[in-house]
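If you are new to this repository, start here. Below is one unmodified record pulled from the training split, so you can see the exact layout before writing a loader.
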Amino acid sequence: MSENELTSGDFTEQNEPFTLFAAWLREAETTEPNDPNAVALATVDKDGLPNVRMVLLKGFDSDGFVFYTNFESQKGQEILSQKKAAMCFHWKSLRRQVRLRGLVEVVTDKEADEYYKTRARGSRIGAWASKQSRPLEGRFALEKAVAEYTARYAIGDIPRPPHWSGFRIRPLSIEFWHDRQFRLHDRIEFRRDVPEGAWQKVRMYP
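And here is the target side for that same chain:
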């Protein structure tokens, strides 16, 4: 069976999570009106309190799930400190959810540079202008910073800020959930002890 043929009725028979995720994401891309790659990202601060916010998944393969951010932001600092995170995708139109959690590593400079070059010019300027997660005295201060960096990089390439890069979550567990009648949902969890380990599949009670 090809990835394109994976459906809600047969997903519990799959033995490898990344192929299944790819199929579900492709289907979400045809049904979700906005940002099918939007995902809730959970981190933990130095006091052990959780934080969660929405980010955009920018890539994934058998090595893990990649997103980009300002490393000086709250989530950036929490991930650099704890080196662990969790994600939750929810595709309401498909009545599906995917949860994953694991260890985090920084992507290579080459990966970050290549992705940064694909961003809109305004977004690249914004990466320089925004002191993400820190107090802003007023909208004018942000607009002034944008204007300053726009003038600085008026001609030619806009380099990637040294504090802006990507994280890769290398999952130790990935759970697939699909809505069923009377709340008797299908839940399949793939687990492993280390990022390089073999997956074990477990069917879970709903």
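Two things worth knowing about this chain: The longest helix spans residues 17-31. The helical segments are 17-31, 74-82, 109-118, 121-129, 139-152.
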